[in-house]
Automatic annotation (TrEMBL):
<keyword id="KW-0336">GPI-anchor</keyword>
<dbReference type="InterPro" id="IPR019803">
    <property type="entry name" value="Glypican_CS"/>
</dbReference>
<keyword id="KW-0325">Glycoprotein</keyword>
<comment type="similarity">
    <text>Belongs to the glypican family.</text>
</comment>
<protein>
    <recommendedName>
        <fullName>Glypican 5c</fullName>
    </recommendedName>
</protein>
<dbReference type="GO" id="GO:1905475">
    <property type="term" value="P:regulation of protein localization to membrane"/>
</dbReference>
<dbReference type="GO" id="GO:0009986">
    <property type="term" value="C:cell surface"/>
</dbReference>
<keyword id="KW-0654">Proteoglycan</keyword>
<keyword id="KW-0357">Heparan sulfate</keyword>
<dbReference type="GO" id="GO:0005886">
    <property type="term" value="C:plasma membrane"/>
</dbReference>
<dbReference type="GO" id="GO:0098552">
    <property type="term" value="C:side of membrane"/>
</dbReference>
<dbReference type="Pfam" id="PF01153">
    <property type="entry name" value="Glypican"/>
</dbReference>
<dbReference type="GO" id="GO:0016477">
    <property type="term" value="P:cell migration"/>
</dbReference>
<dbReference type="InterPro" id="IPR001863">
    <property type="entry name" value="Glypican"/>
</dbReference>
<keyword id="KW-0449">Lipoprotein</keyword>
<keyword id="KW-1003">Cell membrane</keyword>
<dbReference type="GO" id="GO:0090263">
    <property type="term" value="P:positive regulation of canonical Wnt signaling pathway"/>
</dbReference>
């Protein structure tokens, strides 16, 4: 018998050949009937009783179908679906949290700076009235408090007219100036609270007793504070966009593709292999197609925020406008004293001082009586309690530079988000693709956005309503409104041209056949944040975390350098291949 089977070898050679075949069969038996590594990886995904002890041949899988036995079941696939949704949203939130933290910090920082400047300006104005115009200072200070309280509310986004509040302040100041500076013999305490006081407040805009100083002060404050207010509103809008992004929904097709990318390799015993880079990008760009639609509006938004910051801080315009209040009020009161006789004659005719009755008794705004204004100022009245002007200017300049440099890192966030989530993908050695282990991904890598996904080979993106569509529309409307409110921003150079040293590239929208699209996402800014330890890109454990210490954490795909030789599938394949070659050599 041995001669017929092994005509060209002796019995010793046949013995070693059959021994080798027996060893191969034993290797196959040992590994085929073990799902130990899969159970170990599944312990953070779902109940271990869903994992078979040995591979099964009739798994009836929905997502991870393949020829041969499998260590997965339909129940495991259900757990994998929940796991990929949890993990993907967790990682997205890790990045958006970083941006939200930066924005929220600067919302508070800018508001604190605004309030410090207002406090400094109010203290200077109060000291002017007390030192140079003591006869009216006591009754004027409540109106000073009211003016700066209104300006403070405006900078925080309140529905306040800066010019209206400034003119209201001068309307209330005129009766005091008339009775204490121009005509100090008149009984001011009676006149201010009488119909004559109402008349003086009402006719002040018409007779212009303060010259053009009230108008100039109103215009300068409205311009400078308007930019600061819009910057604060812009930062709040950025927070809303990030909140909408955090809770973006993942479609069924997306979840299906994520399971194939992250966990179908486990069904074949490959728990440590990484997905191919291009494969991961296609999956993530398909999943985040709607979110990527925010890329262009967000880039436009960041450019506007940069320009608003420059407009606010350029040549210290905000500080000068606030600190100029003291000078405007001083010049206005001096103008009143200088033109006292003419003002008195005009008031005598209009308000009919001879009878003590006014001819026009319809003031547009109610009087603020000194006796009822007991509300204290929101700011300290003494300028000595404030930082110096130089310190405030230095702090604002430093805050501006830090903010702009930080903002520059996030302007390409929505275009780069798929790449951030694919940081651990592998293109340098053997990697996992949709259908199995490959040397490299050969599929076409598409760009970002809904339109580009029509050619996505991994995720079917249907024309459904995006969860972030409302946020996108709101952001676009905000951008348009800001440009219309501040047309001068269009004439300003972008931050890149003002010395940041970084140039912004266009976002990836679609890759033509001639483009040579790269899985690395060439052409997009890389100045983006590292996620906090609360969330890492796919496949990474936060340092110090272990699966046993944090059982509630979403499952992570553990990966090594792309080697899969330790898995039972590769071992079986090699053994069978070698055995076949031996049999072929024996028989022929």
């Amino acid at each position: 018998m041995s001669r017929g089977i092994c005509p060209r070898v002796n019995s010793v050679g046949c013995f070693w050949i059959f021994s080798l075949l027996t060893f191969a069969v034993k290797v196959i038996d040992v590994d085929t009937y073990s799902c130990y590594e899969v159970r170990t990886a599944f312990q953070q995904v779902g109940p271990l009783n869903r994992v078979p002890e040995t591979p099964v041949t009739d798994a009836d899988l929905l997502f991870c179908k393949h020829q041969g036995p499998s260590c997965c079941t339909r129940k495991m696939e259900e757990s994998y679906q929940f796991a990929v949704k949890r993990e993907t949203l967790h990682n997205i939130q890790a990045y958006t949290h970083e941006i939200k933290h930066v924005i929220a910090f600067h919302v508070d920082a800018f508001q604190d700076m605004f309030q410090s400047l207002l406090s400094f300006s109010q203290g200077h104005l109060s000291s002017l009235l007390e030192g140079s115009f003591p006869s009216l200072s006591q009754q004027a200070l409540p109106h000073v408090n009211q003016l700066f309280s209104s300006l403070s509310l405006y900078l925080r986004g309140g529905n306040v007219s800066v010019e209206g509040e400034v003119h209201h302040f001068f309307n209330n100041l005129f009766p005091l100036a008339y009775t204490r500076l121009i005509n100090p013999g008149v009984e001011g305490s009676i006149m201010v609270g009488s119909k004559m006081g109402d008349c003086l407040r009402m006719i002040r805009p018409d007779i212009n007793p303060f010259g053009n100083h009230a108008v100039v002060m109103a215009q300068k404050l409205a311009g400078a504070l308007g930019v600061g207010r819009q910057l604060g509103l812009a930062l709040e809008e950025g927070l809303e966009v990030m909140n909408a992004t955090e809770y973006a929904r993942l479609s069924k097709e997306c979840v299906k593709s994520l399971v194939k990318m992250m966990y179908c390799s486990h069904c074949r015993g490959l728990t440590l292999i990484k997905p191919c880079g291009g494969y991961c990008l296609n999956v993530m760009r398909g999943c985040l197609a709607c979110v990527s639609e925010l890329d262009q509006p967000w880039r436009r938004y960041t450019r506007l925020v940069e320009k608003l910051t420059h407009a606010m801080a350029e040549q210290h315009s905000l500080e000068l406008a606030m600190l100029g209040v003291r000078g405007h009020v001083n010049d206005a009161l001096l103008y009143t004293e200088l033109h006292g006789p003419l003002i008195t004659a005009t008031v005598d005719k209009v308000c009919d001082l001879s009878t003590g009755e006014a001819t026009h008794m319809h003031p547009t705004r109610p009087e603020v009586k000194a006796s009822t204004l007991t509300l204290s100022s929101p700011f300290p009245s003494s300028p000595s309690s404030h930082p110096s002007l130089e310190e405030l200017q230095g702090q604002l300049g430093h805050l501006k530079r830090y903010f702009l440099n930080t903002l520059d890192r996030y302007k390409s966030f929505f275009g780069m988000l798929p790449e951030l989530l694919c940081e651990v993908a592998n293109d340098e050695s053997t990697c996992w693709s949709r259908d199995g282990v490959v040397k490299s991904y050969t599929g076409r890598v598409v760009g970002n956005g809904l339109y580009a996904q029509r050619n996505n080979p991994e995720v079917k993106v249907r024309n459904v309503e995006c969860a972030v569509a409302e946020a996108k529309e709101r952001l676009e409307n905000f951008n348009t409104d800001t440009e219309e409110m501040f047309p001068e921003l269009a004439e300003m150079e972008d931050w890149e041209e003002l010395g940041s040293g970084k140039r912004e590239e266009g976002s990836t929208t679609e890759c033509d056949d001639e483009d040579g699209c790269q899985a690395s996402g060439d052409g997009q800014d890389k100045h983006l944040p590292e996620p906090s330890s609360a969330g890492k890109p796919l496949g990474k454990h936060p340092e110090g975390d272990s699966p046993q210490e944090n059982p509630s954490k979403p499952p992570l795909v553990k990966m090594i350098g792309g080697s899969s030789s330790a898995s039972w599938t590769q071992c079986c394949s090699l053994a069978l291949l070698f055995a076949g070659l031996c049999l072929q050599w024996i028989l022929f």
